[in-house]
Amino acid sequence: MNSKIIANGILRAIGIVLGIALLFYFLYKIESVIVYIAIAVVISLIGRPIVLFLRHRLKFKNTIAVIVTMLLLIGLFVGLVLLFIPLIVEQGHNLSLLDIKKLQLNIESLYQEVISYFQLKNIDIEQSFENSSWLSKIDYSIIPDFLNSVISGLGSFSVGLFSVLFISFFFLKDSKLFENGILIFVPKSKESGLTNSFNKIKDLLSRYFVGLIFQILILFIIYTVGLLIVGVENAVVIAFLCALLNLVPYVGPIVGGVLMLTLTMTSNLGEGFSTVIFSKIIWVSVVFIFGQLVDNFGSQPIIFSKSVKSHPLEIFLVILIAGMLFGVIGLIVAIPAYTAIKVVLKEFLSENEIVKKLTKGL
């Protein structure tokens, strides 16, 4: 091997490394566009069954079916926004008139009530907080600043929303648009297998995302009814937020539970801790635990087994590994990504024994 061949090999390797680095840099710079496309893909998968129903059962033309589907999805989104707007406007008005010192005194008063309640039960929890002085370190002025940051981000949100809706429309109108874009980079000999994989993935993930909507709906109903019975203010909004957080496996339910209990406490700051707040916290905890039991032992197993055709233990391990490797994003995309990988493996490596066992139900 002469020096010229070695030099060419080194230059080729450097060129490949530089090309990969430039590709990742390019993807990093357009990460917002990638996020828009990813959200549009999810919306198109959710809307796909509606489009097929309108086309096949009601005999709508494709374009009309897509427009009706988009209007339905937009109407659903607008309805959710209208659900939150009164609460946001009210809280924004309250924050604009907020007396920071009074807020601090109210929270410190609640803290003293909690301490007094547990002292009656011969439980001394005050000692653990004395050295930290955490209440005096809280910067309550951050609340109006946070509200201003949210308002300033509405412009970017509007651009993102328009982009997502525009891309979603064409993904629904031409269901093979995304597929054809990827097939450009695939050899001719692999196009047939990849096309079959895309069709299978779209069917499975459409059922999966529709199943998630039903999962959220079931939790939302349980939480709403439970919180209304307990007498929690803004029960519908709190129930929806906590049900929506359940989309993030394992972490989401914990955050939702903490949020539900926190909002229950803060909505009753002027009332006695032992007579009102503590009893409401207990009943809200019962509502939350009941909803999680129904979800974990009813909704989730049905969704996983019927939609992505995977064993619950298999799904648990996949989510756990994805969460450890990629954090919260890994938890969210673990199941769709794993389902897509299984379909591709079955299409191209169907003779492999391990693949046969993993994809037995597909």
Describe what you observe in this structure.
With 362 residues, this protein is mainly α. It has 2 domains: 44-175, no CATH class; 187-362, no CATH class. Helix content is 84%, strand content 0%. The protein has 15 helices and no strands. The chain has helices at 3-29, 31-56, 62-96, 100-120, 127-130, 134-137, 142-152, 154-173, 177-183, 188-230, 235-245, 251-266, 273-308, 312-348, 353-358. Helix 2 (31-56) packs across helix 8, helix 3 (62-96) packs antiparallel against helix 8 (154-173) and helix 12 (251-266) packs antiparallel against helix 13 (273-308). The longest helix is centred in the middle third of the chain and has 43 residues, at 188-230. The protein starts with a helix and ends with a helix. The model has no long low-confidence stretch (mean pLDDT 75).
Q: Look at the structure and give the mean pLDDT.
A: 75
- In percent, how much strand structure appears in the residues? under 5%
Amount of helix: over 70%
How many domains? The number is: 2
Short overview:
This protein is mostly helical and 362 residues long.
What key attributes describe this structure?
single chain; 362 residues; mainly alpha; 15 helices; 0% strand
SSE map:
Blueprint: H1 3-29, H2 31-56, H3 62-96, H4 100-120, H5 127-130, H6 134-137, H7 142-152, H8 154-173, H9 177-183, H10 188-230, H11 235-245, H12 251-266, H13 273-308, H14 312-348, H15 353-358
